[in-house]
Amino acid sequence: MNCEPDNKGYWGEFGGRFVPETLVAPLDELNEAYLASRDDPEFHAELADLLNHYSGRPTSLYYARRLSEEVGGAQIYLKREDLNHTGAHKINNCLGQILLARRMGKTRIVAETGAGQHGVATATVCALFGLKCVVYMGSEDIRRQELNVFRMQLLGAEVRSVDTGSRTLKDAINEALRDWVSNISDTYYLLGSALGPHPYPLMVREFQSVIGREARRQILEETGKLPDLLVACVGGGSNAIGLFHPFLDDENVQMTGVEAGGRGAALGEHAARFAKGAAVGVLQGTRSYVLQDDDGNIASTHSVSAGLDYASVGPEHSYLRDIGRIKYDSVTDAEALDAFQLLSRTEGIIPALESAHAIAYAVKQAPKMQREQIMIVNVSGRGDKDVDSVRQLLNGGEK
Amino acid sequence: MSDRITENLKNGRGFIPFVTAGDPDDETSLEILKLLAARGANVIELGVPFSDPMADGVVIQRSSQRALDRGVNLASVLSLAAKLRVSSDVPLVLFSYLNPILRFGIDGLCSAAKKSGVDGILIVDAVDDEARELADKFAEHGISLISLVSPTTSDGRLENICRNARGFIYAVSRAGVTGAANSHSNEAELLAARVRKFTDLPIAVGFGISTAEQVENVWKFADAAVVGSAIVAEIEASIKANDALARVEALLDQLLPLQKAAHTHKVEGSRL
Ligand SMILES: Cc1ncc(COP(=O)(O)O)c(C=O)c1O
Q1: Distance of CA B107 to the CA centre of its chain
Q2: B148 CB near a chain A CB, below 8 Å?
Q3: A165 contacts B126? CB cut-off 8 A
Q4: Contact criterion met (CB below 8 Å) for A9 and B127
Q5: Do the Cβ atoms of B148 and A178 come within 8 Å?
Q6: What's the predicted TM-score (pTM) here?
Q7: Is B208 left (phi over 0), alpha (psi -120 to 50) or beta?
Q8: Of B79, B127, B172, which to mutate for an interface test with A (greatest number of A Cβ within 10 Å)?
């Protein structure tokens, strides 16, 4: 199937470039540099080298025997993005974009972060290339992901707290955009998910597709067949599109993106952009599904997981959902917390709370499938960053 | 293709104030608009509050949030515009982000805006084809889409933007967000000169203009100066003492000393 956006960055009606005029020129410059890198074997060789020797790719595809036995039904394989350097899939995208930033001669990197994983990965690649790094993070997220704030600082990045709006990922993106527009000559905006104005959603998807390319090869090598179902959590959508994209032409492979159901179905209590009442809108440079009120103001969201706590979703997901290629569902905070513990106890793998959403969906779905069916679940990150919050949540009440 | 906006700016030394609609409250907001009109605003920009104003600095972000907290939305902005229309024919331009407009509905907005006496609409985050489509729709209702250009805009883009522009060209003085800044660069002047090659429409310069000296300077190379955050900051500072009108008036006295003289004169004259 054709999943290239048109040259303006649209998948159907989704995507595009909705930015203040000042950002048009830097986005054009970025697009040009990106397209040139895409056709340059040297760029790909350098990226592959970093992915392999620095980040430790390929990450393993691991058959979760005890988990599969515990829940019954399909065989559950885990794509272990948690084993990447820095502990999440975010580094795949950061390595690609930092090479691009260097080619463009930029000396200062700005980024937003929700869970802190993208911030840590950005701070890491900036340390690796000796570039100045500023990370914007909502003060609510700073509170719940303290450890990652210190990690970023250790890596030499400056973390700037954002106190506007819901004080989470969306607000950090606003602030990063404001920084970028004010410093375009030397600054590169290293966006962390398959979001934002063209060419970011395309570029991030391409850099993350290494996940799906590896998984496809690995499952074929190991089992001789393609999986029946792919499962990944969807915040902005980068780990999910990275896993899904290389399988889109495999008609018999089904895919489910798992959103944050939070603590209820009312607007403001969740981050399920595709849930009932979903509406298309424009936020932060792209047209996609957006949680919003009747006046078109962006709704606040809630999730136990900072990385999924965002009011919009990458435009390619909206397209793939509307044409029916990918299904989207949500799990609640409580279900994710259960899955967090289940995977820890059955497999000795502590997943990120984001990834625990995918696990939670998988353990509900597997029993409805046959024993010979195969499911691949993306473990987008490891849970060390969440251990403290989970401890407090399990000990009763919010931190 | 001359409209009321263009007409009102063609003599140069133009003044375009920006305020967020409904800040600090509906009544005071209307009084502020009347004051601005009485004090010789050539065009007024009326900000539609939005939850995620990514092109705005902190002052306008906060005023936007205050207005939202009071429930201001596009419908109430239009009703404020209509109320001003009763007593003033100053051209009004809505200044908005795209999402509230999409949610309201373009067709509905066109007729409602027309009814409320709105002359133009500037949409911060619509460019290229998306802007052109909106411009065409608006034009069917006699409403001008106001185009914004920036020092980063290439000549090729300028030519295109100017060819389709109406009302006036809003030239951003620097790459950045709204808000006062003491930049002494000549970026705005260079931009105005480039724009001038492609259009006879009036050119207004905005972003970071907060002193009489800056206004005078803009008038040397452009037709009008836009002042936003400086006024909005006075409104914010007025909330405790509830003296918004006095504060805005004092700021206008500073910004436009000559208009002050003329205004005083007129007021005295009318007393005779
Ligand atoms: C481990 C992990 N998984 C998933 C996400 C969600 O982002 P995306 O949907 O772009 O993969 C995050 C974001 O912070 C994350 O840290």
Answers
A1: 23
A2: yes
A3: no
A4: no
A5: no
A6: 0.96
A7: left
A8: B127
Which distant-in-sequence residues (6+ apart) come within 8 Å of B182 by Cβ? B208
For residues B106 and B137, the answer to whether their CB atoms sit within 8 Å is yes
- Does B213 participate in catalysis according to the annotation? no
Residue owning the nearest CA to atom 14 of ligand 1: A307
Q: Is the CB of A385 under 6 A from ligand 1?
A: no
User: How far apart (Å, rounded) are the C-alpha atoms in residues A112 and A122?
Assistant: 9
Ligand 1 binding pocket includes A235 (Cβ within 6 Å): yes
| b/e per residue B40-74 (b: at least 16 CB within 10 A) | bbbbbbbbbbbbbbbbbbebbbbbbbbbbeeebbb
A15 to chain B: which residues are within 8 Å by CB? none
Instruction: Say if CB A252 and CB A207 are below 8 A apart.
Output: no
What is the DSSP-derived secondary structure letter of residue A375? Answer: E
Among B73, B98, B153, beta carbon nearest to A21: B153
Q: Out of B56, B119, B223, B234, which one is annotated catalytic?
A: B56
The SS3 call for residue B186 is coil
| Owner of token pair 């970028």 | A180
In B153-221, which residue ranges form alpha helices assigned H by DSSP? 155-164, 187-196, 212-221
Interface test with A, best of B50, B65, B103 (most A CBs within 10 A): B103
**Residues of A with Cβ-Cβ distance to B177 under 8 angstroms:** 178, 181-182
d(CA A330, CA A335) in angstroms, rounded, equals 10
Nearest Cα of chain B lies from the Cα of A279 at a distance, in angstroms, of 9
Strand-pair partners of A137: A113, A161
Per-residue pLDDT of chain B (272 residues; tens, 9 = 90+): 458 999 999 999 999 999 999 999 999 999 999 999 999 999 999 999 999 999 999 999 999 999 999 999 999 999 999 999 999 999 999 999 999 999 999 999 999 999 999 999 999 999 999 999 999 999 999 999 999 999 999 999 999 999 999 999 999 999 999 986 766 679 999 999 999 999 999 999 999 999 999 999 999 999 999 999 999 999 999 999 999 999 999 999 999 987 766 666 555 544 43
Residue A41 tokens, joined: 């074997």
Q: Which atom of ligand 1 is nearest to the CA of A116?
A: 14
How far is C-alpha B265 from the chain's CA centre?
27
In angstroms, the separation between the Cα of residue A118 and the nearest Cα of chain B is 21
CATH of B4-269, one of 3.40.30.10, 1.25.40.10, 3.20.20.70, 3.40.50.720: 3.20.20.70
- Three-class SS state of A356: helix
Calpha distance B5→B8 (Å, rounded): 5
Q: What is the C-alpha to C-alpha distance for residues A208 and A232, in angstroms, rounded to an integer?
A: 13
Cα-Cα-Cα-Cα dihedral sign, residues A264, A268, A274, A275: positive
In short, whether A193's Cβ falls inside 6 Å of ligand 1 is yes
Nearest by CB to residue B125, choosing from A19, A182, A295, is A19
Longest dimension (CA), chain B: 56
Question: CB pairs below 8 Å between A and B: how many?
Answer: 108
3-state secondary structure of B57: coil
- Looking up tokens 């957006």 gives A290
SS3 B171: strand
Which residue's alpha carbon is at the smallest distance from atom 6 of ligand 1?
A235
